[in-house]
Here is the input.
Amino acid sequence: MNEKIKVLYYALWIAHPILQMGIAAIMFRRGLHRKFKFFFAYILTQLVTFVVVFPAMWHSYSAFFYFYWVCDALSVAFGFAVIHEVFVDVFRAFHTLRDLGTVLFKWAGLVMLLVAGVVSVSTDSSDIAPWMQAIITSQRCVRIIQIGMVLFLLFFARYVGISRRQHSFGIALGFGSFAVIELILICSWVGKHWGDPTTMSILNMAAYNGTLLIWLGYVGVKSPARDASMSLLQPQRWEQSLTDIHHPLPADSLIPMFEGMVDRALSRTHPDAPPAQEALGAVKGTATRGAAAGAGGFSLPAVQVSSKS
Here is the structure.
């Protein structure tokens, strides 16, 4: 590595904590650290990573090596948690969809760990330890999920009333854009289309600085409120369908059936028939008494509804 490349390399690396401190300071001042707790913790974790890893590189390579991989594992864990946090914020108005998504995210995390474990055990490589292979595989899984999240917001933001200027969209956009570049670099390295690791590291750090600038711009501006006038009929139907599945109507509830029967019967009766409310109250009372007596069924003769007093 010549002197100019080395200066560029360390300049890009030192820019990380500077931008991260700006993001953390703005989030704390505007109270966003309470709304996006895991994202704020992720930024703080990256700051601690620099404080620990950068000096260790100059003193002990062994300490630098283990500090780097431990911090990388923490970064993967917080990255996955931030994805869930963005999802919860996007579906904040739809409680049932949010709960379903939380369950799916837990299963996705479990599957990701299983895949990482299987890949680390089955990979026969003397150049990399199994635990390192597990961290790398988990990181790639998280990157793919981050790309999926930003694509979802790009194409379906209008269905859930999310503006592209909101903080949750900016967080997902930053992660997704960096994940695309990192996966391209990894595929180029694995496919042996790129053989210079120094250039790859510089491009990767430059891409991450671009992500930090995106986050800095988003947390620095006020997030617009959701547009209540937007058409949200489709997610509302999803919400109602899931709510009906979670809280179905009891099978032994006869009142709705009798209400429909009375409405249909009264629409065909004589004008001097009992008022609708009186007939409906009589039917409800009869149904309640029949249920209390343990009757197996109940039928309402048409003559009782249409009879004159």
Q: What stands out?
A: Residues 275-280, 286-309 have pLDDT under 50 and may be disordered. Residues 3-243 form a domain with the Rhopdopsin 7-helix transmembrane proteins fold (CATH 1.20.1070).
